[in-house]
Amino acid sequence: MRSFGYTIKQAFIQFVRNFNLSIVSIFAITAMLMILSIFFIATVNINRAAETIKGDYDSIQIYLLDETTEDDAKMMIEDLKKTDGVEDAYYETREQALKKFKKRWGDNGYLLDNLQNNPLPNSIIIKIGDLEKADGIAKKAGAFGGVEDIKYYKNTVDKLLKMTRFIQTAAAVVMIFLIIVSIIVVANTIKLTVFNRADEISIMKYVGATNWFIRGPFLVEGIIIGLLSAAIALALSGGIYHKAVEVFGDQTRAMLSMDLVSEKVLVTNLAWMFMIIGISIGAIGSIISMRKFLKV
Amino acid sequence: MIEFNNVSKYYKSNVGLDNVTVHINEGDFVFLVGPSGAGKSTFIKLILKEIEPDKGTIKVRGEDITRLKKSGIPKLRRNVGIVFQDFRLLPKKTVYENVAFAMEIIHQPKRLIKKYVPQVLSMMGISESAGKYPDELSAGEQQRVAIARAIVNRPKILIADEPTGNLDPDTAWEIMQLLNTINMKGTTILMVTHAKDIVDKMEKRVIAIENGRIVRDEFGMYGYMQALQGTDVTFDTVEVQTRNLFRTRFKRGGGRR
Fold first, then answer.
1. Most buried pick, A37, A291, B37, B88, via CB within 10 A?
2. Nearest chain A CA: its distance from B63 CA (Å)
């Protein structure tokens, strides 16, 4: 425990002694984390959009003619449920359909209150387990009498999935790249502080200090830099996201009938992510930078 | 204490050590001499396990350190003190802190630090300078601090790498007296030096290295005494013989003049 106290004390002394350098690193890492957070925010929201849209589109909607009774519909449902690839099938009245719409529009749902009469038809909604089988199911449904129209969106869903997958991969690549750059930045900062203390380190080695004992303060210094950067980046991206929700929230709701990921959830996630990345960047950076000096 | 058995160390372009076998006993005071690049540094680095030999075994205090794992190096070095030509004191620490530092980094309790550091400083004759910084001290005083730091953890072996190289003759001699005192208290001392006058004056064992090989291993007065133990010849006769030797040399020198 005595050496733990020494480590922490030394780390802070070093941090203060190299204050300018530390600040430069913090700026650099904060910048990286900010870019990272933009990618993260985009990815999270695109994922959410994809999920919402997929939720709509992994179903086939069978709009029924007005004269088709609920009993007829129930017979169709029985039949459909036996079909391969169908997960579930249920009847939805036009009133239920309208309610669903209102709910999805959220705060703007009142706009639908002014409708003179409900324009939506009764329908059967089929949840598809396997999107590949959607074609066959749609064809079968079309053969029933009393059906006005069939809506399903296999191509759209496919395209959407491809796109989200691409964005996710791209974001992951960029994030990894940024993390590597950050590690290099920290490694170089710490290397300079290590340079300043090369004599001290070699003396420590000659007197018989263990490598971890020597590394400790530099490790903690790196972690302090990482954590401070994380805190600043979190405050900034939290603030920016708050603004973004204010400005774009209504638009996404109108266009995609979806809310942006809530600030609280996002900031919590970012906090964890930044903390872990900040600590690892600092720790790995300092370990890398020390390697050469510990060879004595 | 230190045993080199058929030790070789080769570098890319030259030889560090070439099949060296030498034993240094506990309590010895040994000079290691030779021209630059002869292998003296290699010798020391091998003892500290800073480098590994290509061939042979090295034993320090009975332990084969060529088989020692990396993690065992700190423990090895805690038993080997080291003093450099350029002192290598930490400029931002006081004399006291420089010495205490050696104890702190191997986790010695504060109680012991407070006890031993003043003891060692007083032994080195620098108690009054405890609160000063290295740049306020003379070179000789700085080397005293460095020696204090090297012995404060009570190593069994003290390696001195040209400890008098930066000192004037009088100061150098004072440092030699200190090393002698430390040796008398039981610490084995291995000193690398170029100072022929010091080597001659001290009359200790001298190992000379050239091109990685031991070319001379003379025991000096101390060696004679050890070699003579248990024989009829006494220290007195040796002393007389040595004195006579000096006298003849002196006469010869005088004759030429």
1. A37
2. 17
How far, CA to CA in Å, does A66 sit from each of A9, A93, A118?
79, 11, 12
User: How many residues in total does chain A contain?
Assistant: 296
Delimit the domains of chain B by residue range. Answer: 220-257
In this complex, is the C-beta atom of A4 within 8 Å of any C-beta atom belonging to chain B?
Answer: no
pLDDT tens digit sequence for A90-136: 888 888 888 887 777 777 777 777 777 788 888 888 887 776 677 78
Phi, psi at B49, each rounded to 5°: 55, 35
Residue B127 CA to residue B120 CA, distance in Å, equals 9
Give me the average pLDDT of each 10-residue run along chain A (296 residues). Answer: 75 81 86 86 82 73 83 83 82 84 74 77 82 76 81 73 83 86 81 81 86 87 90 92 85 74 87 90 85 77
Domain A57-153: which CATH class? alpha beta
What pTM was estimated for this model as a whole?
0.66
Count of CB atoms situated within 10 Å of the CB of B121: 21
Tokens of B225: 């005494």
Q: Is A102 on the interface with B (CB under 8 A)?
A: no
CB contact under 8 A, B106 and A207: yes
Tokens of B51: 């480098």
Put simply, whether A204 touches B (Cβ < 8 Å) is yes
Shortest alpha-carbon distance between residue B110 and chain A (Å)? 10
- Interior angle at CA B126, CA B124 and CA B128, nearest 5: 150
Q: Which two tokens stand for residue B253?
A: 């020198």
- Kindly report the three-state secondary structure assignment for every residue of chain A: CHHHHHHHHHHHHHHHHCHHHHHHHHHHHHHHHHHHHHHHHHHHHHHHHHHHHHHHHCEEEEEECCCCCHHHHHHHHHHHHCCCCEEEEEEECHHHHHHHHHHHHHHHHHHHHHCCCCCCCCEEEEEECCHHHHHHHHHHHHHCCCEEEEECCHHHHHHHHHHHHHHHHHHHHHHHHHHHHHHHHHHHHHHHHHHHCHHHHHHHHHHCCCHHHHHHHHHHHHHHHHHHHHHHHHHHHHHHHHHHHHHHHHHHHHHHCCCCCCHHHHHHHHHHHHHHHHHHHHHHHHHHHHHHHHHC
Contact between A296 and A213 under an 8 Å Cβ cutoff? The reply is no
- Contacts of residue A207 in chain B, CB cutoff 8 Å? 77-78, 101-102, 105-106, 149, 153
Q: Smallest CA–CA separation between A4 and chain B, in Å? A: 11
Which ranges in chain B belong to alpha helices (H)?
A: 40-47, 73-78, 95-104, 110-123, 139-151, 169-184, 196-202, 220-228, 235-256
CB-based burial label for B201 (10 Å; 0-12, 13-18, 19+): exposed
Most B CBs within 10 A among A13, A196, A206, A214, hence the mutation to make, goes to: A206
User: Do the strands B15-24 and B2-10 form a parallel or antiparallel pair, or are they unpaired?
Assistant: antiparallel
- CA-wise closest residue to B3 among B88, B93, B63: B63
Q: Where are the domains of chain A?
A: 2-53+158-295, 57-153
- Residue B216 structure tokens: 């001379």
